[in-house]
Amino acid sequence: MARKWAYLLSTSVVVQHTKSELDAELSQQLDRICALLLAEPFDPAPLEELGEQFVSLGYMTEDGLRCTTEVLGRGLLALPDFQPTDRWADRVAVGLGAFATGFAAASRRSVFDQQEALRLSLLKAVRDAKWRLRESEARFDEVVTSSSSGVLIVDLDGTLVRANAAVGEILGYTPAELAELTLFDLVDTESADALRKTMDELLLGGPDRIRQSHRLLRKNGDVARITLTTSLLPGEEPGTGHFVTVVEDGTELMLLQGELNRQALHDVLTGLPNRQFFTTHLEAALRRADPVHGVTLLHLDIDAFGMVVNSLGSRAGERLLVHVAQRLRAVVARERAMVARFEGDEFGILVENTASTPEVAWIVAAINAELAEPLFVEGHGIAVSASTGVVVRPPHDTEPAELLRSADQALRRAKAGRRGQWELFHPARDLADRRAQALAVGMPGAWEQGEISVRYRPVVALSDGVGAGEDSGGSGGVVGLDALLRWDREQPLEHDLCVELAEQTGLVLALGEWVLRTAADQARWWRDAVLAVSLTAVQSADADLEARVVRVLEDTGLRPDRLVVGMPVGVLSVSEAAENLTVLADMGVGTALHDFALGPDDLAAAEALGVRRVRVARRLVDRRTSYVAALVAAVREVGAVVEVDGVRTDEQARWWRSAGAFAGCGPHFGAAVTAAEAVSHFR
């Protein structure tokens, strides 16, 4: 019976127990019901309490009560304990009535409790909603009030409902004055139609918000360029609501953007246009230039600016740059001209020439005259000069970048001479320079491809041991070989040009060591002939020169006394070069001074450094005078022998031999040859 009750009940209502739990619970309930019905005296009150407890089993609706009364009404009277039926029928009916009464009372209280809980929940929800609404309104008020952007609440017809203080600050109205206006009163005529169209579009269900630029009228009559962002807040009923319009004043932003653009195109320190601005201006100036007078471009570099910064500090350098900028503007103040600072201590001037524009020489002289006036910085009077590259009247179709390159090339040539000089751009010379530079940058590749080789030029004795000691090797004999470079190409390049090109790119150090190594390795086949290697100014002052020579001697096995390293005498003013010469001599390597001018200073250098050889510069080969002969004798008196370079004729050879020169080289004694051909000099 209990299992039947549990099954029927679980199909009628929702209970809180599993099937086995419900079976056990209802079995206990049935036992208590039977016990209460059989008790003497009979009391229906406990059955009423049992009915109340029955509600706690779950969601016991009328279906649950109906199922229970049917099961108990039929099942109890069929039990043996309730036989005969006539005796127990009344008591069972009364008991079930009490059970139903308890169930109804408990069910009613449960409904009341649920209703009360629901009422309290609703009250709490309403209270929370009102609180959140007030909080949202307060937050909105705070955002609107404190916002630097203007905020307008506008009716659908454009009437201002509310405006924050920022709107008044932007447009110059008080809150009271704004309350009497519509949104369309604040917009100029040209923007009013566009604003109405925007509001209509929002009302018709367009985008959530529309952002547009408009012209609003300030109270003082000025026009403000404003960005309006308008959105619709719909009301409860169709066709109701408000517009929210955010007003952003773009004036400060436009000013800021203008300042940023100015800074992007101007030098911060001097206030002058920078290279980017100058290039753009140059392009426009070329298009509008007078067809007769054209334009003049000057590229200036401040001489000795690095010395000022190194000695007096960067602050002094900055003040000097500002001073230079002011002086340059003063020089061209009466001309249609732009002065710009490129970078570092470089400046540019573009003059749009007229019939009255001064000549370039006058402008450059005026610039250096202005810069010669001292600028006093912390008690130091600083005066500088400028080296200048100039391009005059370039073609109108010249690209600005090409024109700036031309001026830079002219500046480089000006700086190659004395300071304070100027150089005019010449297309033919520039073409030659560019060809030479193309050769220079292509030289490493040619070396890698084996196009560059070492040739050997004979150094021949001019006298039979006159002043030469053991170095003569006999009259007319080859006493040594000069190691020279040669670039084998369609038009071969000889040693001097190869070295000049290599110095332009810094290749000369690595290439010089390769020449020394190649020649030293070959010299093992030349009996006791001396290998002579001429160094450039850069090689002579190389901090690693000693290490390079030591490596070559160790790797090739060449004796130091069979190597003669020659340095140009003019480089000895550089302490590193003089020190290198001394160190090589201490190692036993022969040392020589090349490009010797036979002057007192050169003679003093030879004596001070104890060199054994000097090579007279080839430009002096025709200076055959008694004075020169006396100087040759003076060189021999300090213990050195004299070689002469560039000997072309037998007459020259005889004269220098008679003057006391030991050996000579040049076309008269044979051209430079390959290593294989050089062996023939020693047969």
Uncertain runs are 465-475
Q: Class by helix and strand content?
A: alpha/beta
Alpha-carbon distance between the two ends: 140 Å
Return Rg in Å: 55 Å
Q: Average pLDDT across residues? A: 83
Report what the structure shows:
The chain is of the alpha/beta class. Helices cover 50% and strands 19% of the residues. It contains 24 helices and 22 strands. The strands form 5 sheets. The chain has an 8-stranded mixed beta barrel with strand order 15-16-17-18-19-20-21-22, surrounded by 6 helices. Strands 4-3-7-6-5 form a 5-stranded antiparallel beta sheet. The radius of gyration is 55 Å and the shape is elongated. Residues 465-475 have low confidence and may be disordered.
Q: What structural keywords apply?
A:
single chain, 683 residues, alpha/beta, eight-stranded mixed β-barrel, 24 helices, 22 strands, elongated
Please write out the topology.
Elements: H1 2-12, E1 14-15, H2 19-38, H3 45-54, E2 58-59, H4 62-75, H5 85-146, E3 150-155, E4 160-163, H6 165-171, H7 175-179, H8 189-203, E5 209-217, E6 223-234, E7 241-249, H9 251-265, H10 275-288, E8 295-302, H11 305-312, H12 314-331, E9 337-341, E10 346-352, H13 360-371, E11 375-377, E12 380-382, E13 386-392, H14 400-416, E14 422-424, H15 427-448, E15 452-461, E16 478-487, H16 495-505, H17 508-522, E17 530-534, H18 537-540, H19 545-556, E18 563-568, H20 575-586, E19 590-596, H21 600-609, E20 613-616, H22 626-637, E21 641-645, H23 650-659, E22 663-665, H24 675-678
Parallel strand pairs: 13-14, 16-17, 17-18, 18-19, 19-20, 20-21, 21-22
Antiparallel strand pairs: 1-2, 3-4, 3-7, 5-6, 6-7, 8-10, 8-13, 9-10, 11-12, 15-16, 15-22
Helix pairs in contact: 1-2, 1-4, 3-5, 4-5, 11-12, 12-13, 15-16, 17-19
